[in-house]
């Protein structure tokens, strides 16, 4: 199967999750997403409404980053973030797994965290971000299995943030 550039672009999830992103940055970002017909625009929950407005009438999904960047929010906060993001126009949810709980072997806690976000997200696909730079192979496997068992649609390897914190 051969892909052309347009087909390839429709597979890209383009992200702007910087904490200093301004309204002008989101406008420029959405223009790029729209111009290239990317599959998904990933933004922080605070920017979902603006992205939804700017991408209205397109087939581009809007994904909200929940528990970003380290998954260290309590489950109730992640649930509220996901619920509000969907109300504001998110069509997908990217949630960061509770990295510390996974590393501590608290499987039930991690599973319930993921499951709660999946349940509140309804038909919106939930993508679980493992943040592999902090995990060993066994933890990655456990994280994937829990995401699958909790009903997540996908697993992602990284937010792209952890490399900054792994440098010594």
From TrEMBL:
Keywords: Cytoplasm. Transmembrane segments: none annotated. The keyword Manganese does not apply. One of its GO terms (cellular component) is cytoplasm. InterPro entries: Aldolase_TIM, DeoC, DeoC/FbaB/LacD_aldolase. SMART domains: DeoC. One of its GO terms (biological process) is carbohydrate catabolic process. One of its GO terms (molecular function) is deoxyribose-phosphate aldolase activity. The keyword Ribosomal protein does not apply. NCBIfam families: deoC. This is Uncharacterized protein.
